[in-house]
Design goal:
By secondary structure, the protein is α/β, with parallel strands linked by helices. Helix content is 34%, strand content 15%. Helix 13 crosses helix 14 (360-370). The chain is globular and about 75 Å long.
């Protein structure tokens, strides 16, 4: 099947052809016809299967082919709303709408937190057809009466399980209540997993949905080679640097996942110290910092991106050759999302995992979820001294004194070293030989 057989309008087909998209993925081939027909959809598919186009193309088709509402006066309110759990995913969804809908004359905007709301507010007041948002910032704008959702007739929840993990269940219900209700609204919910909370939410929001399940989260992309190194925690940094410097490994562009924000900063800093261009993103970084890091990584200016699980979903960067799990994730499902950053759109990739003795239980959970053993590799011989410390200068005793005028003072013997000049006088409040006043009442330490 090809996109031309799915009933999409000609402007959308021209945009897809310009991007070189001819054959839809399984989730797209199944979801797009039902989306064009206006049916509610409950879709389950792992990351990297093309879910964004599965809901973006039907939205663009329906809005661009619908008759113009001449009763609308002034700036038009959004008619389609897409909720995303993270800023990066929201930005990439917005980019997809720009690419696929460039010939449709439909307007869209993306709103998320971490940046000033000034430009977002201006875009909403000017009027948009499609709104892509994270729940937190959208609720803020709704409370300020800046976001009107009363005309939303197409509502999409992307990565719904991730949004529930982040505690967005109540904001989602509040946002959904502000849109059109019943038969006036088409709802599409996409999730990598289907816990009972997602099922309950689907029952509350969807009407007789079409259920589509493609490539469950427990299955990694078949072209991703998975390897494992059993290595003590203190040797993980040395092993990472060894692999990145190994010419035979051909690690051209890699994402390194850590468990904590502090750990990401530490790994990224040490990579820079040994001359490996690396950028770091996590939840404590501002949106500007995160965008600059992703831009440098996408452009090739930085070879390595060190990240927490904030980048495990929605990060779509071409030609990522390797994913490195510096720390194994707490949740086994996150492992599949992480390694899904490589091997996208049918390409191949390599996923490398480091595991120490304390992470063996997590490793067993991951292998139980995926139903396969990760191939164990022999750990290469590592230098006893970490590479990031090999550039340290001469010992302190061999360095020139930073203040030459004080060198003579520094060379003086310590108090009580046999020089009467440096012995305290014994009187309270008297000056000792080093020019420091003696302690009153009790020794001064």
């Amino acid at each position: 099947m090809q996109f031309s057989q799915l009933g999409l309008s000609q402007p959308i087909l021209r945009a897809l052809e310009a991007e070189g998209y001819i054959t839809p993925t399984p989730i797209q081939a199944q979801a797009i016809p039902h989306g064009i027909a206006g049916r509610d959809i409950l879709g389950s598919a792992r990351t990297g299967t093309g879910k964004t186009a599965a809901f973006a193309l039907p939205i663009l088709h329906r809005l661009s082919t619908a008759p113009i509402d001449k009763s609308q006066r002034g700036p038009h309110s959004p008619r389609a709303l897409i909720l995303s759990p993270t800023r990066e995913l929201a930005a990439q969804i917005g980019e997809s709408f720009r690419t696929y809908g460039r010939d449709t004359h439909l307007s869209h905007t993306v709103i998320f937190g971490g940046v000033s709301q000034h430009h977002q507010e201006r875009a909403l007041r000017k009027g948009v057809d499609i709104l892509v948002a994270t729940p937190g910032r959208l609720i803020d704008l709704m409370e300020q009466r800046l976001a009107d959702l009363s005309r939303v007739e197409m509502f999409v929840l992307d990565e719904a399980d991730r949004m529930l993990d982040m505690g967005f269940i109540h904001p989602i219900r509040r946002i959904a209540a502000a849109t059109r209700q019943g038969a006036q609204r088409q709802t599409m919910l996409f999730s990598a997993t289907m816990p009972k909370e997602i099922v309950h939410l689907a029952h509350a929001l969807l009407r007789e949905p079409v259920k589509i399940a493609v490539d469950p989260v427990s299955s990694a992309a078949p072209k991703i080679e998975q390897v494992l190194f059993m290595v003590p925690r203190q040797d993980k940094q040395s092993l990472l640097e060894h692999l990145l410097n190994d010419v035979a490994g051909a690690i051209n562009r890699a994402i390194v996942f850590t468990r904590t924000k502090h750990g990401a900063d530490k790994v990224g800093r040490k990579l820079l110290q040994v001359g490996i261009q690396a950028e770091t993103i996590h939840g404590n970084k501002s949106q500007g910092q995160r965008k600059r890091a992703l831009d440098r990584f996408s452009s090739g200016a930085a070879r390595v991106l060190v990240a927490t699980d904030v980048a495990a979903r929605g990060l779509d960067v071409d030609d990522i050759s390797h994913v490195v799990n510096f720390d194994l994730p707490v949740e086994p499902e996150a492992y599949v999302h992480r390694i899904g950053r490589t091997g996208r759109a049918g390409s191949s990739g390599i996923a490398i995992s480091f595991c120490d003795a304390e992470e063996r239980g997590t490793l067993r959970d991951i292998e139980r979820l995926t139903g396969r053993k990760i191939a164990l590799q022999a750990t290469p011989a590592l230098s006893a001294r970490p590479a990031w410390r090999q550039h340290v200068a001469a010992p302190v005793a061999d360095r020139p004194h930073p203040h030459p005028k004080r060198a003579s003072e520094a060379a003086r013997p310590a108090p009580h070293a046999g020089n009467p000049e440096h012995r305290p006088s014994g009187k309270r409040g008297a000056w000792n030989g080093r020019g420091r006043k003696a302690a009153r009442g009790r020794p001064r330490f």
